[in-house]
Amino acid sequence: MRTLLLLCLCVYVAWAGSFDYDDYDSVSVKPTVAARGHRPLSRGHDSYRPNRYSPPPINTGGRYRGRPSTTVPDKGRQEQEKEEQPEAGGCTHASEQMGVLCPTGCELKTALVKQERNVKGLKSQVNDLSRSTNNVYNYVDHMSNSLRERQRVINENNRVVNQYTNNVEEQHAYIKETVDTVFPSNIRVLQGVVDKIRLKIQKLEKAILAQNEGCKEPCSTTCPIPVVSGKECEDIFRRGGRDSQMYMIQPDAFYPPYKVFCDQTTEKGGWLVIQNRLDGSVDFGRRWDDYRRGFGNIGFDVGKGHCETPGEYWLGNDRISQITKMGPTELLIEMEDWTGTKVHAQYQQFTLQSETSNYILAVDAYSGTAGNAFMEGSNELFGENRTMTIHNGMMFSTYDRDNDNWNPGDPSKQCSKEDGGGWWYNRCHSANPNGRYYIGGSYTRHMAKHGTDDGVVWMNWKGSWYSLKAISMKIRPFFPSK
Ligand SMILES: *[C@@H]1O[C@H](CO)[C@@H](O)[C@H](O)[C@H]1NC(C)=O
């Protein structure tokens, strides 16, 4: 029985909880969907200091010239008062016709009177008796009344008992039916759930096996490296590399060359992809060292003989810093929602300081359709709250290296731990391109690991609770466009 109840409880819990296989910590979250991004000030010692000094982006010394191109009354006792024969004093007969009584008659009368006295005494005795009989009668009457009353109570009790008995029988029947039918069906449902889970586990195991198989050999990009190479993608473009694909670049002769994906078609080409999200295939919740060196897949060959399909990757903060410090650099952020709509944000100046400065971000000269998140923060927020979401001038933070502007030094207040990726978090974000990838776009705080808007977010376009399908960041040396 207890086991059955337990099972029943299990079924309920299973239904109520739906099935979430993700191993998330349960976090109590408010049910309302509100603007996120920032971490509002709490009362007490909490304070917020906006930007510290940060170097502006490099804007002089161009490397390139332009190129062409929800409650009886008592019975009035009719006591028949007997007509008293008038005492005829002495010896007259009661009836005149009968004449006068003789002395003996008188004696008789006296005797009779005597007798009468006796009879009178008797009468009072009779009266007494009658009275006591009355009493007894009353008592008996009372007794029988209370007997009736008792009978009535007993009947009533019987009725109640019957009713209870009926109830008990009904409940018994109900419980029996529940035990006989509902429980087994719940058990069947539970069994079905268990079977499904088992199937899913099997699938997952298979997938893991397949993945292991594919990773026996160190992953390598097998595309041929194009003949054309250069300092960066603009250089390659000018040298004739006009196809968007993976190229080899060497920005600085003191460091070895490396692979990047060049977009040679968007806005006249020459764009070096430094960040790319398009299918969630790469985990961006990584540590400092990974973000420093770069991670992910530069490109794929889908049968054309060269890596013309870009992968998801982060070029690496050292490399980004190094390239952007070579001269004025522009940044193009392109994004796409799950219906295929595209917008962009462009900054004519973009510089990343070196690791010793924790890769401080500097941008300027915005143009575009996505909203100036980097410099203005989220337009859903106001005052200090908005300031908290500006990225320009922020140092880079990862979950293992907290450089954000949210109570620095407090390990429980780290944007990167809550918002999913490495980024120039302030007190936290208005844009979160390195966040967690949610297929389909819309997500809720209940789906997020920490109840925060940790998706691939650009608040000024789609708000906090929409994770973009694709987003990329590309850089190019800035030059006059004519
Ligand atoms: C900042 O945000 C908090 C909560 O999100 C709100 O209570 C407060 O009014 C906001 N301040 C401003 C200036 O909008």
Automatic annotation (TrEMBL):
First and last residue of the signal peptide: 1-16
Transmembrane segments: none
One matching Pfam family: Fib_alpha
GO molecular function terms listed in the Swiss-Prot or TrEMBL record: extracellular matrix structural constituent; protein-macromolecule adaptor activity; signaling receptor binding
Entry keyword set: Blood coagulation, Coiled coil, Disulfide bond, Glycoprotein, Hemostasis, Secreted, Signal
InterPro entries named in the record: FIB_ANG-like, Fibrinogen-like_C, Fibrinogen_a/b/g_C_1, Fibrinogen_a/b/g_C_dom, Fibrinogen_a/b/g_coil_dom, Fibrinogen_CS
Biased composition (Basic and acidic residues): 74-85
Domain Fibrinogen C-terminal: 224-479
A single GO cellular-component term on record: fibrinogen complex
Record carries keyword Coiled coil: yes
Any one biological process term the GO annotation gives: platelet aggregation
Record note on quaternary structure: Heterohexamer; disulfide linked. Contains 2 sets of 3 non-identical chains (alpha, beta and gamma). The 2 heterotrimers are in head to head conformation with the N-termini in a small central domain.
Name this protein carries in UniProt: Fibrinogen beta chain
Taxonomic lineage from the root: Eukaryota, Metazoa, Chordata, Craniata, Vertebrata
Underlying gene: FGB
